[in-house]
Amino acid sequence: MLATAVAVMKMANATRTQRLLAGLGVLILVDIIWVASSEITKVHYLKSYRCISWLAGINYMISS
Questions:
Q1: What are the pLDDT digits (tens) for 45-54?
Q2: Half-sphere exposure of 1 toward its Cβ, with a 13 Å CA cutoff?
Q3: What's the CA gap between 26 and 16, in Å, rounded?
Q4: Rounded to whole angstroms, how far apart are CA atoms 32 and 24?
Q5: Helix, strand, coil % (nearest 5) of the chain?
Q6: Calpha distance 35→53 (Å, rounded)
Q7: Residue 43 — φ and ψ, nearest 5°?
């Protein structure tokens, strides 16, 4: 938390170009985290779905 406050205080003295580049860096970092979490969620969902589908198939074969 203190490091964030220090970084903000340093940015107050930064030039407009430096603030723009820092903002773009943060934007790119957030985008990377967003896409990565989406992919992780998709993989987890597909693995869960395959497991459930497989178990449903086993139950169907047993009950038939």
A1: 777 766 665 5
A2: 0
A3: 15
A4: 12
A5: 90, 0, 10
A6: 27
A7: -65, -45
Q: Which residue has the tokens 């990377």?
A: 32
Q: Is 56 exposed, middle or buried (0-12, 13-18, 19+ CB in 10 A)?
A: exposed
Residue pair 26/18 in contact by the 8 Å Cβ criterion: no
Please give the Cα distance from 13 to 61 (Å, whole number): 70
Cα separation, 20 vs 41, in Å, equals 31
CB 23 within 8 A of CB 31: no
Look-up of token digits 């779905």: 49
Task: Tell me the pTM.
Answer: 0.52
Model confidence pLDDT, tens digit, residues 4-21: 656 666 666 778 888 899
